[in-house]
Amino acid sequence: MSAAAEAHGHAGHPPTPHYSSRVSPATLGILLFIGSEIMLFGSFFTAYFFIRVVNSAFWHGQWPPSPYQRPAFVAGVNTLLLITSSFSMHWADTSIKKGNRAGLKGGLILTFALGLSFLLIQMIEYSRLGFNTSNTAFAATFYGLTGLHAAHVFVGLTILMVMIVRSFRGHFSQAHHHGVELGGIYWHFVDVMWIVVYFTVYIL
Amino acid sequence: MNNPLRSERDAFRMVLLTVAYLGLIGIGWRIDKWLGAAVFVALTAGGVVWLLRGRSSSRGARPAAERRRDELRVLVVAEDGGSGSGLVEVLRSRAAGRRAVVQVVSPASAERLAASLVAMRSAGLDATGETVEGDAGPAIEEAVRRFRPDELVVSSGPARTDWLEPGFVDWARERFDLPVVGVASHEDGAA
């Protein structure tokens, strides 16, 4: 043990950290992370709308430009899958707050399955679209936005997998479930972003 | 303004609000683009007004001038739901014959909180309560803003969690211009 630790009277364990804010470091961390994500998505949305508006006359006001078609129906099904996954995530979080570990496990597994289905459907749809990123500015921004989101779903699935493993190892309880709380916030954020992407890219 | 991503429940609510917001705009857009734009403006303006009203109003709060002189408003921050022995005695002692209006905020389960409220009411306290999620600091700041207490009582009981960080009582004394009392009801009733 160092002399400094002895001087502070913390024999055997480090001193208690002092926070200037009552927001825990973990929560503050994920909020900062989500803030940076919003800025990242914002830059992609800016590029999308810029290209759409600037080239409007060139494409005679048609969006998407001919002959491209947006798979709105399949994307709509995917949207329903992700919204449903938010409900199952909320179920998992509510369950562990009531001490129901079976509900936590069921909710997390269902959320993972729905997220994985979303990702697989999107990959299949990509393979059937008939255009790729190098075709036009529309195609580039389309793949850019939806691909960026898909990458976030992949990260979310990874977090969910860790949460599932931890839940089966009994790491979460009614009193200690911060890991579920933070993972849930991230998953809902990914869902919100998809709803915005779907509305912007497929509906408008 | 509340942080919409403070807890999982808040984030889930954000998902539902986003669905409703963009869904209505999308329906309007499908009917007519100008209708979609109008719905967008109306909903956005309504949302801004709602947020501003939420910031200025303080639900359940009464200005100090309107309060009864024989009333003491106590906000109890109860890590364990307020079920520990000694808390009720401390509250009655603080009231010193005045009518004690108690608001309990706790991360404990609703059932546990309800049982504590029953015990407080049976002891003659005018007690209400709510369960809170997320970090203790923002939740308590919000409760103080709404309830406008005269005193703050921080209760930690046998079922200690990591919700209240060490040094929380000292932080509360610095943060709020209120008397703050720490109660460790599992040890000797009051500290």
List keywords for this structure.
heterodimer, A: 204 residues, mainly alpha, Four Helix Bundle (Hemerythrin (Met), subunit A), 6 helices, disordered N terminus, B: 191 residues, alpha/beta, 2 domains, elongated, disordered C terminus
Describe, in plain words, how this protein is organized in 3D.
The complex is a heterodimer of chains A (204) and B (191). With 204 residues, chain A is an all-alpha fold. Chain A has one domain (19-203): Cytochrome c oxidase, subunit III, four-helix bundle (Four Helix Bundle (Hemerythrin (Met), subunit A)), CATH 1.20.120. Chain A has helices spanning 3-7, 25-54, 72-97, 101-128, 137-168, 178-203. In chain A, 27% of the residues are buried. Residues 1-11 of chain A have low confidence and may be disordered. Chain B is of the alpha/beta class and 191 residues long. Chain B folds into two domains: 8-56, no CATH class; 64-184, Rossmann fold (3-Layer(aba) Sandwich). Chain B has six helices and five strands, in the order H-H-E-H-E-H-E-H-E-H-E. Chain B has helices spanning 8-31, 33-56, 87-95, 110-122, 136-147, 168-175; strands at 71-78, 99-106, 126-131, 151-156, 180-184. Chain B has a five-stranded parallel β-sheet, with helices on both faces. In chain B, helix 1 packs antiparallel against helix 2 (33-56). The radius of gyration of chain B is 21 Å and the shape is elongated. Classes of the chains: A mainly alpha (204), B alpha/beta (191). The A-B interface holds A 16, 18-19, 21-24, 27, 31, 34, 83, 86, 89-90, 93, 97-99, 174-176, 178, 180-181, 184-185, 188-189, 191-192, 195-196, 199, 203-204 and B 3, 5-9, 11-12, 14-15, 18-19, 22, 25-26, 29-30, 109, 133-138, 140-141, 159, 161-162, 165-167, 171, 175.
